[in-house]
Amino acid sequence: MTPTLVRHHRYADSSAPVDSGTRARDWAEIQERMLAPLYEAVFDRLEVGAPTRMLSLGCGSGLALLIAASRGAAVTGVDADRERLALARERLGPGTGASEARAEPVRRARLVENLPSAAGEAPYNLLTAFSPIGCAAGDSEGLAPALAEAVPLAARGATVVLTGWGPPERCATAPVLRVAARLAESARASRPGGWRPTLRDDLEEVAARAGLKPDGSGRVSCPFGYADVDSAVRGLLSTGLFDAAVRATDRSQVEKEVTEALHPHVRPDGTVWMPNVFRYLVCVA
To answer: Which member of 32, 53, 219, 247 has the lowest number of beta carbons within 10 Å of its beta carbon?
Structure first.
C-alpha cells in the first residue's frame, strides 16, 4: 500500500519552505501537547486499556500512542511524515519499527509509514484519526478514503474516532488562524492548506463518506498555552495551517502578522493563553 491517503490526513500539505526537522520538533515539543486533553477524554470514554488494539492514522510524533500504551493498549501508528515518525520512535523507545518486538512498559507498539498487513494478526478494535480536521481547505478529503483503507484491518463493530476543531466562536485561536486565509488570498487561496472556518457537520460528513455509523460525540476544552510569543508562533506554524500563507508571501511576513494577531492573548507575565474547544465523533465500523 502507498502512504498517500494517510499523508492527506494531516493539517496541510507540507510543501512550504520550512526545515522539516525543526518543524517536526516544534510540533512535538510545543504544539502536540495542546491536544493531550482530547486524547485523554477519548481514552477515558472508551475505557482504553489492555484489551485495546489501536491503529492511529496520522499518528504524528506519537503522544496519543504513548498515552494509550501507558494504559496497557497495543498501539500501531501510521504516518507518512518521516520526521514526526522518527520523533515518535524516540518517545516510545527502541523496538517500535515495523517488525521489532517491544519490551515493557510499552510492550506492544509499532510505528510505520504504510498501513500494516492484516495477515496473521488479531484485528484492531479501535481506529483513531487524531489530526483535527475542519480548519484547512481540503483537510478532510483524504480522510474518508484513508478510513476505507484502514477499516478492513479492524474487527467487525470496531470503534472509530474522528476529531475536529470546535466552532470558531468557541476557539480563541480562530482569529489568529484567519491570518493564514488573508495572506493566502493574495495568491491562490484554494491551494491545499489554506485556513477556512470550521463547519458544524465536518466530522459527520466524513463518517458518512466512509460508511461509518455515528455512535456519540463530545467536546473537549484544549487551551493553547505557550511560554512566550516566540513559542506560540513556532507551535502554530508547525501545524501546517499557515503553509499556504508562507507560499503566498514568505515566512518572515507570516511570523510578523501572527505575532501581531497574538497580542490580545498575551498575559502580563508574557505567556500566551487561548482557550479552544475541539470535537470528537465516535463511530462504529
So the answer is: 219
Q: How far apart are CA 170 and CA 188, in angstroms?
A: 28
Q: What's residue 197's pLDDT?
A: 67
The whole-angstrom separation of Cα 179 and Cα 199 is 18
User: Grid coordinates representing 259?
Assistant: 505575532
**8 A C-beta contact, residue 272 and residue 232:** yes
Q: How many CA atoms lie within 13 A of 174 on its CB side?
A: 18
Instruction: Look at residue 179 and tell me if it is in a domain.
Output: no
Polymer length of the chain? 285
CA distance 166 to 31: 17
What is the total count of domains within the chain?
1
Q: Which residues of 135-145 are buried (b: 16+ CB within 10 A; e: fewer)?
A: bbbbbbebbbe
Residue 146 placed within a domain: yes
Q: How far is it, in rounded angstroms, from Cα 263 to Cα 246?
A: 20
- Compute the distance between CA of residue 56 and CA of residue 37 in angstroms, rounded to an integer: 17
pTM: 0.86
- Residue 240 gets the label, from left (phi > 0), alpha (psi -120 to 50) or beta, of left
pLDDT of residue 118 exceeding 50, the answer is: yes
Gap between the Cα atoms of 131 and 151, Å rounded: 17
Residue 52: which domain range?
4-172+194-225+276-284
Nearest to 161 by CA among 127, 135, 124, 204: 127
pLDDT in tens, 128-159: 999 998 776 677 788 888 999 999 999 999 99
Strand positions, DSSP E, 166-276: 213-221, 224-226, 272-274
Phi, psi of 153 (to 5 degrees): -85, -5
User: What CATH number is associated with residue 144?
Assistant: 3.40.50.150
DSSP 205: H
